């Protein structure tokens, strides 16, 4: 698939080039989250306006961004904080500041399940064979995606902001910047814990056996995510990805790593997507995006295409 380019935006980065981008507009207020579908043909976005909007990526039959908008879903009573597509792209999972999660049928727009268990804002969900969610109540809840009640609960003393689940393991962190790792088959005891950040961890992302964290302290770090590491070997990798502009708005700026595992992308208060080389830990580009803080980023499943969401109410899609 090739991206049909629409809007030219001047960009200041290391090679001082300009680029063209597709901009989706429809939310009223900040767009907190957006995700590509598994087949890469669609985008789902969620905002403080409580709306989930659905978009189709451009092709020769789509002439305008307005035509790319294919539907909206409403039903949450507060802002949408994160989204995940089902494995067959027929359903969508959402988390919300209204303390619930939901499962939506994308053909009918109807809510199929309401997941209840958190007592406060749900900050993020992630989905593998099981689903995990974290919230301001300090809980990491584990769910069977087909059941509305949690199957396990891991409790901490401080709000949790980010979670990743994969291969029967869950990783989470929050206001207390300790990163926790658990085996989903035994949540009574953690596999490992690490504390290297000096402020809230706002995002976690995983690439094979490497876990990445980003923090309001302006840095990103990486870890060996395996259950066990050899004695005398540090789980924390030495690279420090520095100079992230986290701003003063207190949004949870999300990050992600590409499929090759050699580029790290993160939203920034300087209105760019900041990109680091994983191996050298150097910033290789600042991709100019929207007119406000960049909150969330996601990468297309097969192409070198990036989306970013912003406090300015837009979703921007561009090649990188």
UniProtKB/TrEMBL annotation:
Keyword Endoplasmic reticulum attributed: no
Entry GO CC: catalytic step 2 spliceosome
CDD domains for the chain: WD40
Biological process terms in GO annotation: mRNA processing; RNA splicing
Domain of life: Eukaryota
Xref: SUPFAM superfamilies: WD40 repeat-like
Single GO MF annotation: RNA binding
UniProt KW keywords: mRNA processing, mRNA splicing, Repeat, WD repeat
Name of this chain's protein: Uncharacterized protein
Record's keyword annotation contains Manganese: no
WD repeats: 24-55, 73-114, 115-153, 261-286
Listed Pfam families: WD40
